[in-house]
Amino acid sequence: MPPHLPAQLEFLLMCDRLKAVSRSTFLHDGSRPENSAEHSWHLALMALTLAEYAAPGTNLPRVVELLLTHDLVEIHAGDLHFAASPEAHARQARAETEAAAQLFGLVPEPQRATFHALHAEFEAAQTPEAQFARALDALQPLLLTWAGGGLGCAMREPDLTAARLRALKEPRLRAFPALWTLAQTVLADAVEVGTLPA
Amino acid sequence: MPPHLPAQLEFLLMCDRLKAVSRSTFLHDGSRPENSAEHSWHLALMALTLAEYAAPGTNLPRVVELLLTHDLVEIHAGDLHFAASPEAHARQARAETEAAAQLFGLVPEPQRATFHALHAEFEAAQTPEAQFARALDALQPLLLTWAGGGLGCAMREPDLTAARLRALKEPRLRAFPALWTLAQTVLADAVEVGTLPA
């Protein structure tokens, strides 16, 4: 057996646990909450499908790698609601740094550094690839919730309004006019049909 | 809104249904069956992690694209057990061809042709990329089931033996010595600990 393979196997089996990390978004048929593994798959598929709306010159395979790995730290740190407080976000960032060391420490160098670099690039949001990946990550739950007729989720999310969602989502989406237009259309539609307060 | 975006949105929401397609493999903690969306994510992550065991010159981003899309037809055609009869496999192939036309027909050309080409390449198993993708697809359920201590799944799969699994998996795995060694190690271990008949 090649020398790195047992460590890589242990890492991949640990990653199986991402399928048990539950998100606050429900599937669009409303049947159950989405988990972070299938969410990561959906985002990667969105990157392939919506690639034409990325900035010219964006390295699409890198976007896909960022999306496939961006939530792995949740295996140890859990998922945080996007509308959580700044303090909760700061605590989560520290927990995710520790989680990254624990999880990526399972594989030897240079692979360990490769995974750390992917995580750091996504979090820093400075490259065109990370910015497109984060825009898709911001857009996807809006689409699922809207398609399910439940944007606003009055029972689950009594404090959400279209104005608050617009303010939360705009920083990630405005650089991608097609995606930002789609997000605004969905929010306006939810207000019009009465599933989300203005 | 860009002209193709509403069709792409409809396609991506239809793809959400892959999260409800249940496979015969269980998560490695035995808690529930895996679904085909999170399975596709896990395979893509395996491609990134195990890339060094692909044939030299393999286009890894293409492998990832194949894995992200290879099960989409199951949204309409359902999943088939890998040990099903040749007749069942032939019926499934016809159902998947119809499913591909229905699903990929949601997006306009040239994107429709892109998705059809991915599906056809995976099924034909002629390119190094499709062969590596199919090897990972053959390996992953063995790893999950073995790690869960349940290879053989005596209650769910009373007819499976190590010899039968070896014969079923070898055609996809033997071209990748590291992966085939790993599969054989796992099968031998399951026989040794008594979870799988020889």
UniProtKB/TrEMBL annotation, chains A, B:
The keyword Ribosomal protein does not apply. SUPFAM superfamilies: HD-domain/PDEase-like. The keyword Membrane does not apply. GO terms for molecular function: 5'-deoxynucleotidase activity; metal ion binding. Residues 15-156 form the HD domain. Keywords: Hydrolase, Metal-binding. GO terms for cellular component: cytoplasm. InterPro entries: HD_domain (IPR006674), YfbR/HDDC2 (IPR039356). PANTHER family: 5'-DEOXYNUCLEOTIDASE HDDC2. This is HD domain-containing protein. The lineage of its organism: Bacteria, Thermotogati, Deinococcota, Deinococci, Deinococcales.
